[in-house]
Design brief:
By secondary structure, the protein is mainly alpha-helical. It has helices at 3-40, 67-70, 78-81, 84-129; strands at 43-45, 55-57. The protein has a two-stranded antiparallel sheet. The chain is rod-shaped.
Length: 134
């Protein structure tokens, strides 16, 4: 395999690594968005199955009253619907996914740039010595 063919194949693999990194970063962003929805959006709770008038609950993060955190003491159904461990689990799951995504994206980008730099240096050496392309 000629060096140019090898270099193009090397860049192609680096591009695929970079795309895997972007995919993992996108997945981590979706996990963060899901966590934000759980914490920031108001929600409704059925007090009994097939309830025609579900109870409206405030968001977990911006509640002034204690319905989200202390509702079970007063017989409120809002507390049991959205638990804090679910949101924290989403954040915990997003950490290794985003770390792997950043690593793969960085490796792919740096590898591709180093390959381009190496090719530019070979071209400059070839022009300086006056030798034809290989």
């Amino acid at each position: 395999m000629r060096s140019r063919d090898y270099d193009l194949d090397f860049r192609d693999r680096a591009g695929k690594t970079r795309m895997w990194g972007l995919a993992l970063l996108s997945l981590a962003a979706l996990l963060w968005a899901w966590c934000a929805v759980l914490l920031l959006m108001p929600y409704s709770v059925d007090e009994k199955p097939d309830d025609d008038y579900p109870r409206e609950c405030e968001s977990r993060l911006f509640t002034d009253r204690g319905t989200a955190n202390e509702g079970s003491l007063r017989g409120d159904y809002c507390e049991d619907e959205r638990d804090w461990p679910e949101a924290v689990a989403l954040l915990g799951l997003s950490l290794p996914v985003s770390t792997a995504g950043v690593g793969l994206f960085t490796i792919g980008t740096v590898t591709r740039r180093m390959s381009s730099h190496s090719q530019a240096m070979r071209e400059l050496d070839r022009l300086a010595t006056g030798t034809p392309n290989d």
